[in-house]
Sequence to fold (256 residues):
Amino acid sequence: MFETISYETRGKTAWITLNRPDKLNAFTSLMHREMVAAIKEANKDSGVRAVVITGAGRAFCSGQDLSGSTDTDYGEVLRKGYNPMVQALVSMEKPVIAAVNGVAAGAGMSLALACDFRIASEKASFIEAFIHVGLVPDSGNLYFLPRLVGHAKAMELAVLGEKITAQQAKEFGLVTKTVSEEEFMLEVETFAEKLSNMPTKAIGLIKRYMNKSWESDLNEVLEYEAQAQKIAGESEDHQEGLAAFLDKRKPAFTGK
Ligand code: T3D
Fold:
C-alpha cells in the first residue's frame, strides 16, 4: 500500500514505520504524503485507539533527504510536505507515541517532538541537525522544543546542534522513558496497549485543549475545560468509569 513507510494495525494500535533504512529513514515528498495518508487512516479507524511511529533499521529518522532533492523553495517543501504531516498528527484525537529506536535528526527530531509521548531506546539520540546545513529548525520544532525543555535549553540545542543521548533527552524532559535495546519494543507495545485501553475520547480532549492552552489566557482555558468536561461527561467511558468505581472493579473502557 505504501512505498516509503509501512502501516499495520495490531490489536487497537496502529503502527507506522518509516521505511527507508539505507537513508536512515530520511524524508522525501512521497514519504510526507504517505505519512499524512497513514495518519488519516489511523484517525478514521474507530478500532485504533493508539498510534506508534517508529523507524526501520538502526535510525528513527534523519530528517530531510539531503541526497535527492531538487526543490529549491524550502518554504513550499514545508507548506506542502512537513506542515500537513505535523498538523495531521496534532489534530488526531488519539495518543501518538514516537518509538525512537535510533537517531532522530533534523525534521526526524521534529516528528518525534510532535508526538504526544516519546519512548527512547538507550541507543537513540537526538540532534538538531538543521544548523549544520545552515538551516533553521522546522516542522513544529521551534514550537515544541522550547515548550518541552524550556527556552534556554532549546536555544542551546538548536543553535549548537550537539547530539544528545537518550539519557540526556530524558534528563531534559524530552522523553517519557528510556529503555534498554532488548526491552524497547516490548515496552513500546505495553505502553501503547495501556493507552489503547484508556478512555480515548477523554485523551483526545486533553490533547485538543492542552494544545490550545498555550495560546489562551486563564479564562479561555476555564471555558475550554467546561466544554471538554461536558463532552467527556456524556461519554460511555465516563459511565463505565463511575460504575467500575462503585463496583470496585477495573473499568473496561471502549473509547466511546
Ligand atoms: O527541503 C528542505 O531541505 C528543508 C527541510 C529541512 C528539514 C531537515 O530535516 S534539515 C536536516 C537534514 N538532516 C540532516 O542534516 C542530518 C544528516 N545526517 C546526519 O547528520 C547523520 O547521518 C546522522 C547524525 C543522522 C547519523 O550519523 P551516522 O554516523 O550514524 O550515519 P551516517 O554514516 O552519517 O549515515 C548513514 C547513511 O545514511 C549514509 O549513507 P551511505 O554513506 O551509507 O551511503 C548517509 O549519507 C545516509 N544519510 C543519513 N542522513 C541522511 C542520509 N541520506 C540522505 N539524507 C539524510 N538526511
